[in-house]
Amino acid sequence: MVVKINSILVVGFNTRPLAKSLHIADYEVYTVDFFGDLDLYPYVKDYIIITKELESNYEFLKDKYSEFLVHFTVEMLRKHNDINYLLIGSGLDDDYEGRDFILREIKEKELDVKNVNNNLEIIKKSRDIERVYDYLSSKGFKVPLSLSYELFKNNVTFEFPIILKKKRSAGGINVFKIENKEKLNFLLNKLEVKEFNPSDWLIQEFVEGIPVSCTIISNGAECEIISINRQIIGEKFLNPPGDFVYCGNIVPANLLKEDNKLISEISLILTKKLGLKGINGFDFVLKNHYPYLMEINPRIPGSIRASEKVLDLNLLDLHVQSFDPKRWDIVKNKIRSAQATGFATKLIFFAPKEINKELLNKINNIEFVYDKTEPIKNILKEEPLCTILFKGKNFSESYFGAIKIIDKIKNIIH
Fold this sequence. Notes:
Blueprint: E1 7-12, H1 16-24, E2 28-33, E3 46-49, H2 50-53, H3 58-61, H4 65-79, E4 85-88, H5 96-108, E5 114-115, H6 120-127, H7 129-138, E6 146-148, H8 149-152, E7 162-166, E8 175-178, H9 181-192, E9 201-205, E10 210-219, E11 223-233, E12 246-251, H10 257-274, E13 277-287, E14 290-297, H11 304-311, H12 315-321, H13 328-337, E15 343-350, H14 360-364, E16 369-370, E17 384-392, H15 395-413
Parallel strand pairs: 1-2, 1-4, 2-3, 4-5
Antiparallel strand pairs: 6-9, 7-8, 7-9, 10-11, 10-13, 11-12, 12-15, 13-14, 15-17, 16-17
């Protein structure tokens, strides 16, 4: 008797960590990926790499990569019409039309592909942060003072500094801290060059505190906390292209038990209210031991490999299984019985300047370096160069162990 191998198409900005876990769980993995990191290829049977297909780079494609993800996803589904599952990672968070186009392609071609993602309506509700805030407020939870930009113009409630952000943003892109009216006017003039639409933007009070996140798994009705994570946002030593750009995580977050409890409570309430399925992420800022929700990511979050590392679980496999009602009890019991062993730190290092391709092999050969850039062209300033994932016995050993890897990379570059 031949055992059928499950096949899965993984789509996203950076699919390497997802593809690796699924490969380890014996899935036959196909991918549509933006970068095409060297350490992606061993885990996939077939792939489409956007930067290679279009013979372009991160800088030219970063503002419109979602449309290419959609186009090449459909191409891959047509090429391999026996794929069992479709998993969409980061990159299509708010491209509802693109997601719908993919799902219609599956339906019209009568492909036997199971969509292991939240449905469109749930994604839209999760990304409508104003309505989410209204719901949390009605339940007695604190939320950041927020106002659509259109209403803000005649409102004097806010005190500087404030945050100007797109209502639907990802990875900290299109989030700006504004110290005064002059800087606000300067930024608005700059944005108007890019066809600034006031209805797409939100003004929010600046909440200063510890960035944290919560990773949770659900079957649409029941849910379990996977991990609570420290977020690393806009750290200068990692050279991110913005003050709020996502730069990694430390798992677990090493918070007080009371902090973890309230973060978990809010995340569980919202997961059940929204009907989220699979693995999803909630971003907070912890100010004076109170978690203020920043956004919901109705997809597998970037911290997933760090969570897998400390829990010794294949969370990608559990994500897929969570969409099968017959497997939920198995998923739930594995999460409940898992124990964190140590801490894992993930850091994303962005290029501080243009980096000669001749240096990339040296960087790629460093232990604990992942998402290795192929040495075929120079890396431009502010492009992501690689990821570090380092596990230690405690919080500081994990974090400073990862920092030492960053220092090795800097020595090579300089």
